């Protein structure tokens, strides 16, 4: 049989992160590549109790098909949670559960994007968003970010330029807090200006906030959704970083008409999310376990971030710079301009250390001299040893390019 | 904010089954509408043990991100299971886990279909397939089925007709065993001829087999995949009907190149399926619990099928006919030609009984005088009472149309 696949594979390419996974079975490899939470942050004991109670109290319901939008009582608990943690007011009907945030990203692209429609992202941005938007043949345009988040002047100039060609972006995708991959947080002033631009040009904002609760220092900045008076913001949350990523549960908060479209599409995508995982999330919120778990995770990750930064200061060459995130899971490192981190990856893997090269985070592969480092997953001694190895690799690579 | 959605919503329409769901909270309603397993068939006690063991033995792994293709050990157990139950030989690399069979249907359409490409289905066919194929802008063409399954002569004529216009179907989608909605089973002879046609014209077969293990009488018929020598068949299985549908787990068995494409797409769809559910399925297979559970479910459903058929014989008007399935979950009822079951549904809902009208199962809404009845979900007394109500509704409707 000679299979002929659809043209979508001109847009979808294997991601560097996923191809790194084949190396992860090597116990010698220290990987800063994946975006995995540390298993120490998983509430295993609490889960055991929750699971036993679920099976005793509503086992059959937790094993039956759920509704496409998700469990009513879970959506009610989520409304309380986002009000308390992010100042977001949402009714049950404005919330839909998704099979991870990844499904939310896919669905949002699918409900808005016709072939080749422009979509604005940050540059760099989340690889999973690139993958979801590519699968829906979006024409992505990346706007630079700095330590205060997306450059809103550049954004407005881009919107005007598109407008002169009769085009308008379908949405503006941002990860304003502890950005993936850069680790930066958008300032309150920029958030307000972004919302103004969204209102002025009638372009929805997709605010992705997987890391908001993982703050290690500094003061919280208001979510854009909490300032949204006119339903311009589509807000994405997830249980992956505050409960467990293996339970594939994310959620979208948006005006009812957007939720209805995602619902209609989700019926074709997977009918409904996992019922058992929805019941787990419901109990996890209702019991307040989430508020006991997050501070433990924050303490664990703060130490790891500090250790990685200390190691970078100690071992990395002087030409290298890196972000100092107040939260989240990632550092963004910029190296000497002559270095191409994609090419250098082979050398790194031989030295048994992995990262994701910066170009993976751009829709069209810019910033060849940068890399993303995850600081949450590795054990402390591995963080130090991995940064040492990476410093060695960079120094070797410098000798080649010099 | 004035939202402008993509053109996909010219193809995706709300499904009748999902809109019926809003009535299901009415405790007076007897619904033969949904395709839900009976909660009595769920292995709740076994699940409790399995969950406790999972958390004790590999809790952290079951809460961490899994791989896109799914747990290695689960895929190995699945290979044993499909060999034993369906005579299918499959290597681990030829299997991918999906978030329910629904995701498999969506992914298969997405990897093969360019806009408006022809796809062959049975007529009637599964609504979820119509939804997944519509979401990928397939041009569906339904081939009639009879008590021996798809009319393969009509199929070949359609392929030739398309070929004269330079067109070729991207795949042929069939549910050969205990078809949804018709309840019929494709004969061995037709299966062989279908495979020959697939090979002659180089058109893949998508064999969807959610109900194969739910056989109440008669002899098993070989799966098409078990006869497939040249990798023409893409086989879809699910845990929904033999374990629990709330755990969203299906699987695809196909040549490696097809699995690789689904994998690449799934990274954008939801990254990976639910890890905890994968571990549950693994333990459920490994312990042999599945082989203890299926006979119980078969006994439960056989009685319900017999009871529904007996009630139909007793209460339904003479002009009505229905299929007598050897397994699965559904009966297909044909009424007097003057009746439009879509129109009659309002009257049925007033009489507190629900079904899905036949036209929902055709890509372009044929067969106005038929309906699908689910016999697995309702309690025995509700089956009798519901059929009585429905007979009353049909008789009333006949008086109007006569």
UniProtKB/TrEMBL annotation, chains A, B:
Keyword Transferase: yes
InterPro entries named among the record's database cross-references: Aminotransferase_I/II_large (IPR004839), Class-I_PLP-dep_aminotransf (IPR050859), PyrdxlP-dep_Trfase (IPR015424), PyrdxlP-dep_Trfase_major (IPR015421), PyrdxlP-dep_Trfase_small (IPR015422)
Keywords: Aminotransferase, Pyridoxal phosphate, Transferase
Protein source organism: Thermoplasma volcanium (strain ATCC 51530 / DSM 4299 / JCM 9571 / NBRC 15438 / GSS1)
GO MF entries: pyridoxal phosphate binding; transaminase activity
Quaternary structure, from the entry: Homodimer.
One GO BP annotation of this record: alpha-amino acid metabolic process
Similarity annotation: Belongs to the class-I pyridoxal-phosphate-dependent aminotransferase family.
Name under which the protein is recorded: Aspartate aminotransferase
């Amino acid at each position: 049989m000679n299979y002929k696949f659809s043209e979508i594979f001109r847009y979808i390419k294997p991601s560097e992160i996923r191809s790194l996974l084949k190396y992860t079975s090597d116990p010698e490899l220290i990987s800063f590549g994946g975006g995995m939470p540390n298993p120490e942050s998983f509430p295993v004991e609490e889960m055991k109790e929750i699971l036993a109670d679920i099976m005793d109290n509503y086992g059959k319901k937790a094993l039956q098909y759920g509704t496409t939008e998700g469990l009513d009582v879970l959506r009610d608990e989520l409304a309380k949670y986002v009000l308390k943690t992010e100042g977001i007011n949402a009714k049950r009907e404005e919330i839909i559960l998704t099979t991870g945030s990844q499904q939310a990203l896919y669905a949002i692209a699918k409900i808005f994007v016709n072939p080749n429609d422009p979509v604005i992202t940050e540059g760099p941005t989340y690889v999973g968003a690139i993958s979801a938007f590519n699968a829906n043949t979006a024409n992505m345009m990346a706007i630079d970010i700095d330590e205060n988040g997306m450059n809103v002047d550049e954004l407005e100039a881009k919107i005007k330029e598109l407008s002169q060609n009769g085009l308008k972006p379908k949405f503006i995708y941002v990860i304003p807090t502890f950005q993936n991959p850069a680790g930066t947080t958008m300032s309150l002033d920029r958030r307000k200006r972004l919302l103004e631009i969204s209102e002025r040009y009638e372009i929805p904002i997709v605010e992705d906030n997987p890391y908001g609760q993982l703050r290690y220092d500094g003061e919280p900045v208001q979510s854009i959704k909490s300032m949204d008076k006119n339903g311009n913001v589509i807000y994405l949350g997830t249980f992956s970083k505050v409960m467990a990523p293996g339970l594939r549960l994310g959620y979208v908060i948006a005006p009812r008409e957007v939720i209805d479209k995602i619902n209609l599409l989700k019926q074709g995508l997977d009918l409904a999310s996992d019922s058992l995982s929805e019941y787990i999330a419901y109990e996890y919120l209702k019991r307040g376990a989430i508020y006991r778990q997050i501070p433990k995770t924050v303490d664990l990750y703060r130490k790891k971030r500090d250790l990685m930064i200390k190691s970078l200061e100690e071992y990395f060459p002087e030409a290298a710079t890196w972000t100092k995130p107040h939260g989240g899971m990632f550092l963004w490192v910029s190296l000497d301009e002559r270095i191409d981190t994609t090419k250098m990856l082979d050398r790194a893997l031989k030295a048994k250390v992995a990262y994701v090269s910066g170009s993976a985070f751009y829709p069209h592969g810019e910033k060849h001299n940068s890399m993303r480092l995850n600081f949450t997953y590795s054990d402390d001694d591995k963080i130090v040893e991995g940064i040492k190895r990476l410093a060695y690799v960079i120094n070797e690579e410098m000798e080649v390019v010099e």
